[in-house]
């Protein structure tokens, strides 16, 4: 399955190593970015385009890269794993009651058009992800859905949410964050930090130097007030806060994004320390979210 590399990456590496046989991912196409993540995660792969990596120490090493797919992997892909579907699916994953919400309420919660919500919910039912039990509707195969959401975040959703990448005066990312929060408070703009800075609030393990923040608005003049400059090599990224559930308020930390977004951002950044921290976030906060619950 094309999902297998994400499902494998959400498992602790020690668990993968305990298997008697080393897993091999078979896929329609493995992009160069995903190929690098699989290599670093010690997962071998073969795709239909001819790219492969198979390693058996002291026995075999096969590697081919750069082959392009002959066609799109999913030419008739629905909306579920496109940006609008991913926004709605985020709310469904993080809010247990969302599966039974009226479509109009779910549209308001997710920031997705009402007509699109009907299509997305129909697709969830048609693909067997949303079922009706004795008392309520609920998502099933949640681990698979979560893995697909994380994949879609990096490949589809994040670019749609991107407000800009900036270079701030000085090199202290923590000082940049405090200055940003000060300006946003004055302008009554909500914000939620994600990625390494958010993970450090919970784990005190690794913060990194990449600052990524969700903001509810980004009016004219804010950039000049901060004295930031747009820069593709900047270390500060702003994303649009696409729905209220982006902010994880259950711990009394109104400036921190939901752990699912923090986890997805860490995997998007993709370096070893970020992936290590992502595994900690998954184990502490997302394992229960990924489990199917009883009706």
Task: Provide an overview of this structure.
The chain has 295 residues and is of the alpha+beta class. Mean pLDDT is 86; it is low at 1-13 and 15-19. A five-stranded mixed beta sheet has the order 8-9-11-7-10. Strands 1-2-3-4 form a four-stranded mixed beta sheet, covered by helices on one side. β2 (44-47) and β3 (52-56) form a beta hairpin. The radius of gyration is 20 Å and the shape is globular. The longest helix has 20 residues, at 142-161. α7 (142-161) crosses α11. It contains twelve helices and eleven strands.
Quick summary:
Helix content is 45%, strand content 16%. It contains twelve helices and eleven strands.
Strands across the major sheet, in which order? 8-9-11-7-10
Strand/helix succession: HHEHEEEHHHEEHEHEHEHEEHH
**What is the C-alpha radius of gyration, as a whole number of Å?**
20 Å
The overall pLDDT average reads: 86
Bin the strand percentage.
15-25%
Task: Summarize this structure as a short list of keywords or feature phrases.
295 residues; alpha+beta; 5-stranded mixed β-sheet; 4-stranded mixed β-sheet; 12 helices; 11 strands; disordered N terminus
């Amino acid at each position: 399955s094309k999902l297998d590399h994400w499902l494998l990456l959400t498992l602790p590496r020690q668990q993968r190593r305990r298997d008697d046989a080393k897993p091999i991912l078979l896929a329609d196409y493995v992009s160069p970015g995903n190929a690098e993540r699989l290599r670093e995660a010690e997962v071998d792969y073969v795709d239909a385009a001819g790219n492969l990596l198979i390693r058996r120490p002291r026995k075999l090493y096969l590697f081919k890269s750069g082959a392009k797919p002959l066609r799109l992997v999913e030419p008739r892909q629905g909306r579920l794993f496109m940006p609008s579907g991913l926004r709605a699916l985020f709310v469904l994953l993080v809010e247990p009651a969302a599966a039974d919400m009226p479509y109009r309420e779910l549209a308001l919660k997710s920031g997705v058009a009402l007509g699109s919500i009907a299509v997305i919910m129909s697709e969830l039912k048609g693909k067997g992800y949303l079922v009706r039990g004795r008392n309520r509707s609920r998502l099933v195969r949640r681990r698979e859905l979560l893995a697909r959401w994380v994949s879609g975040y990096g490949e589809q959703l994040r670019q749609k949410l991107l407000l800009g990448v900036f270079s701030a005066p000085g090199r202290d990312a923590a000082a940049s964050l405090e200055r940003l929060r000060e300006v946003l408070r004055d302008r009554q703009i909500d914000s939620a930090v994600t990625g390494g800075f958010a993970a450090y609030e919970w784990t005190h393990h690794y913060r990194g130097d990449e600052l990524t923040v969700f903001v509810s608005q980004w009016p004219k003049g804010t950039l000049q007030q901060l004295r930031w400059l747009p820069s593709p090599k900047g270390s500060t990224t702003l994303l649009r806060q696409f729905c209220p559930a982006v902010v994880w308020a259950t711990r009394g930390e109104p400036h921190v994004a939901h752990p699912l977004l923090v986890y997805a951002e860490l995997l998007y950044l993709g370096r070893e320390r970020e992936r290590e921290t992502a595994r900690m976030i998954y184990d502490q906060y997302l394992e229960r979210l990924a489990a199917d619950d009883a009706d």
